[in-house]
Design brief:
The complex is a heterodimer of chains A (about 220) and B (about 625).
Chain A (H helix, E strand, L loop, with lengths): L2 H18 L5 H8 L3 H13 L3 E4 L3 E4 L1 H24 L4 H11 L5 H14 L39 E7 L6 H5 L7 E7 L5 E5 L2 E5 L1 H4 L2 E5 L2
Antiparallel strand pairs in A: 1-2, 3-4, 3-7, 4-5, 5-6
Chain B lengths: L1 E6 L5 H9 L4 E4 L6 E9 L2 E7 L11 H11 L5 E7 L3 H12 L4 E7 L1 H6 L2 E3 L1 H8 L3 E3 L11 H8 L1 E2 L8 H14 L3 H8 L6 H18 L3 H20 E3 L9 H4 L2 H43 L5 H38 L1 H15 L7 H9 L1 H6 L7 H13 L3 H14 L2 H25 L8 E3 L8 H35 L2 H8 L1 H7 L6 H10 L1 H12 L10 H13 L4 H11 L1 H26 L1
Parallel strand pairs in B: 1-4, 1-5, 5-6, 6-8
Antiparallel strand pairs in B: 2-3, 3-4, 6-9, 7-10
The chains are: A alpha+beta (about 220), B alpha/beta (about 625).
């Protein structure tokens, strides 16, 4: 089955389910797409085997998690493109919709994100494409906030150990650390550790002394 | 022609600068900043060439005074050719700054310095390869031996050229740079800065901020981190291509002694104690000599001129100020800075900061603050000026309070001249102990009440090396110059003011006004108040004035031991001198300066009263 055909089906099923609060039967889906029921039935078998949908007893078509995700993403692409074509480029809305139907299968997620953001910037009233990008204020230009660093901190390591730096959190994102070469992925070794947790770390052949509070914000992985 | 030296701190820039220019250094204070630019002139092929030593920095993106100064310098094309000084032993790290410099597209040559040290470590650097990677001529030098330093100027003047090297940034960053260039016509370096939130053009910052936000969401990394990582990766590639590790000679690692709590901390205490002791011994010996010869050669001839009384008074006050300035500045402060520069050039000071970090945390500070505090033992003025190495306002404020209380050379003169001479040497030490206890007490309180966040220490440990006599002297000279140009004029002006104060007979009125405090509260003779007042202008003046007013140099015969002890401690604690107040105002503003002044006056009177009660 063609990729675009699969996406069209998933999009239609998702749209129908959203609109009618119930998943479609074969005949309802065929009617919505303007296709014959027999064609739809054979195509549905393909989709079942690719794991996108499941057929319930009375011929009700439901999306699996994977199918739903694809369906939603295609709907979003469609809306964003249609909005861009009609509102920004000034095409009439039915042409825009047809055009969007073709483009939605080829366009990348990134382009859609950027188009979405572009429209938000142009004017607040277009809300398409905002779904994943509810605009939040930048969190202090440091590690982009929410996800915590899961790695143990460098101050938990002991003298003489070799580590790989994974993340730097909070205020310790000090430029100076970056300038001295403490960037994610960099190898470092601990040359000295005092009882209060102050460290001398060797990175890029230079020894750097760190206060305990700075060290505790650097997440590392022990390397052999 | 103008040439500028640019590089990381400790890459040997200053030594190269000194060897290129000889000792004819002038220090220019850059307008609107407290950072010094050192300039010097040389003659090469009958042409005058100006050489500028830019302050040592790690990056061009930051907002520290030094970084902003160098950035401005490059933006305005402040020099015809930039000599980028790299450290051969840390080539990869030094290249990070170099990759940033190329973005400003100046004419460049690269000097890879400390090649002797690199050879010692078995590092072999391929000059041709490095040169072709960077696209500029490369020269290997060893400034400590003077090796190939003479080739720098011909190379810089003859073949300096714009580097072909360009950092390949992450494609999102590159896209952002391109779109900013297209829409706003900003040059690459400016867009890069704007993406990191630095710059003055609001339109550019807004546009760049929005893009940066998108990039951050996509990468889950800050733009700064991405940019820094890209630059580091390029530096690593170049270093890997140009440097080969040969056989390493085994050397004993002194750090195994210096950076451990034991024996590191006892060594630190011993070094600081020895520094202060030698300053005290050498200083007082030289002071006696300078003061005596100045009196014999200048002051006596001047008084024998018998000018009209008013002019006599003004001239005399000026000469006394000069005498005191040189009598203290050279013997005590210069000796102190000689020792300090020696410690700095051996690389020991960064180890001291590391060890002191723990103790300093208790005081609401961190390791780096030990440097201004130690400088404060010499003179409070440069100590306050060095406060800018501390990163937050909170730390600067706390440290400013403490520095104002640290006994400087002038206060050492008071303690030595009054207590050590007439009461006893152990009593003199007890004053230091009381002052240190008060400093710790003040710090503990301040660390709780001062608003703001504490920032930790991130200090590169400088390599341990043998200090160069010439560089130590040059550095001490620069530091003493700060004293001469900032504190000295104030000394002379206040001294004249005081002379006039006495001339018009205002001292008696003042003494009567504050007599209740002096006599009842502190238990001192009435004239001591004038001595204390004069101490505000110059700390050691408290001692000299007291002797003059008491009518004898043998203070023990007119005041009791308790009175002398009380007087000394009050004048040590009592309000910083006018020069200190002036620099405090410049660095931290009126409010903090006023708070420090009021606090120290209050503390001085309180301790004086307590001693009066206890010793009566």
């Amino acid at each position: 089955m063609y990729l675009s055909l699969r996406e069209d089906y998933l999009e239609a099923i998702q749209q129908f389910s959203e609109k009618n609060a119930n998943p479609p039967h074969y005949e309802e889906l065929a009617a919505a797409l303007g296709k014959s029921e027999s064609v739809v039935r054979s195509d549905m078998e393909d989709l079942v085997s690719s794991g996108d949908i499941a057929i319930l007893p009375e011929g009700v078509i439901t999306l699996t998690g994977k199918g739903k995700q694809t369906g939603e993403s295609v709907i979003k692409k469609h809306e964003t493109l249609q909005c861009f074509l009609s509102e920004i480029l000034g095409m009439d809305s039915s042409t825009a919709s047809d055009e969007a139907c073709t483009l939605e299968h080829a366009v990348s997620d990134e382009t859609i994100d950027r188009l979405g953001q572009l429209m938000v910037k142009q004017d607040g009233q277009w809300h398409h494409g905002l779904g994943r990008h509810g605009r939040q204020e930048s969190t202090g230009r440091c590690m982009t906030g929410e996800e915590e660093c899961q790695y143990p901190s460098i101050s938990d390591c002991s003298e003489g150990e070799n580590v790989i730096i994974h993340c730097i959190q909070g205020r310790a994102c000090a430029k100076r650390l970056l300038d001295l070469g403490m960037v994610p992925g960099e190898h470092a070794s601990i040359k000295r550790k005092l009882s209060n947790g102050a460290l001398v770390v060797q990175v890029k052949g230079c020894d750097v002394a760190l206060s305990p509070e700075i060290a505790s914000a650097i997440g590392v992985e022990r390397s052999p | 022609m103008k040439i500028a030296l640019l590089g990381n701190p400790g890459a040997g820039k200053s030594l190269i600068f000194n060897q290129l220019t000889g000792l004819g250094i002038e220090v220019n204070r850059y307008p609107g900043s407290s950072v010094c630019l050192e300039c010097g002139n040389v003659c090469y092929k009958k042409e005058k060439i100006e050489i500028v030593d830019l302050p040592g920095i790690y990056s061009l993106d930051g907002n520290s005074d030094e970084e902003m100064l160098v950035r401005k310098f490059l933006e305005r094309a402040g020099a015809d050719v930039i000599v980028a000084v790299l450290d051969a032993t840390k080539l990869e790290r030094s290249l990070y700054l170099f990759t940033q410099v190329t973005e400003f597209s100046p004419k460049l040559i690269v000097v890879v310095n400390m090649i002797d040290e690199a050879e010692h470590q078995g590092l072999i650097i391929d000059v041709d390869k490095l040169s072709s990677c960077l696209g500029v001529p490369v020269l290997l030098t060893a400034a400590s031996e003077g090796r190939d330093i003479d080739r720098i100027l011909p190379l810089a003047l003859g073949s300096g050229r714009i580097a072909t090297l360009q950092v390949p940034y992450d494609h999102h960053i590159e896209a952002a740079l391109k779109s900013l260039e297209k829409t706003l016509r900003t040059p690459r370096y400016k867009s890069l800065l704007a993406l990191q939130g630095t710059g003055e053009d609001h339109m550019l910052l807004d546009a760049a901020g929005a893009v940066a936000h998108e990039i951050e969401l996509r990468h889950r990394m800050s733009v700064r981190q991405i940019i820094a990582t890209n630059r580091h990766n390029l530096s690593r590639k170049i270093a890997a291509a140009a440097v080969r590790q040969g056989d390493r000679k085994k050397t004993y690692d002194l750090d195994s002694l210096l950076t451990r709590v034991f024996p590191g901390v006892p060594i630190l205490i011993a070094i600081l104690f020895f520094l202060l002791l030698s300053v005290f011994v050498i200083g007082s010996w030289m002071e006696g000599f300078i003061v005596a010869s100045f009196t014999a050669l200048v002051i006596t001839p001047f008084t024998s001129l018998a000018l009209p009384p008013l002019w006599d008074r003004i001239g005399f006050s000026m000469l006394i100020a000069l005498q005191a300035g040189f009598g203290i500045a050279f013997p005590f402060i210069f000796t102190f800075y000689l020792g300090l520069s020696l410690l700095e050039d051996t690389g020991y000071l960064t180890r001291a900061a590391f060890l002191a970090d723990r103790g300093m945390h208790r005081l609401g500070l961190h390791g780096e603050a030990i440097i201004p505090m130690v400088i404060g033992f010499g003179c409070t003025v440069p100590a306050v000026m060095s406060l800018r190495i501390l990163k937050t306002r909170r730390e600067q404020t706390i440290a400013a309070f403490l520095i104002s209380m640290v006994p400087c050379s002038a206060r050492t003169v008071v303690i030595a001249g009054i207590v050590a001479a007439f009461v006893g040497i152990l009593w003199a030490f007890s004053i230091y102990i009381i002052v240190f206890i008060l400093i710790i007490f003040t710090a503990v309180i301040l660390s709780r009440i001062t608003p703001g966040e504490q920032f930790g220490m991130i200090v590169e440990m400088s390599a341990l090396r043998r200090p160069q006599v010439r560089l130590v002297l040059a550095k001490s000279w620069l530091r003493i110059k700060e004293f001469l140009f900032i504190a000295m004029p104030l000394l002379i002006i206040t001294s004249i003011g005081l002379g006039l104060f006495q001339y018009f007979g205002l001292t008696d009125a003042f003494q009567q006004m504050v007599a209740p405090i002096t006599i009842t509260l502190l238990g001192l003779p009435a004239y001591a108040s004038t001595a204390l007042l004069f101490g505000i202008f110059r700390k050691e003046l408290a001692f000299e004035t007291l002797a003059v007013l008491a009518g004898t140099a043998d203070l023990g015969s007119v005041m009791t031991a308790a009175q002398l002890y009380g007087f000394a401690i009050v004048s040590v604690l009592f309000i910083p001198c006018t020069s200190t107040i002036a620099v405090l105002y410049r660095q931290l503003g009126a409010r903090i300066t006023a708070l420090i002044s009021i606090y120290t006056v209050f503390l001085g009177l309180l301790i004086g009263a307590v001693i009066n009660l206890l010793m009566k």
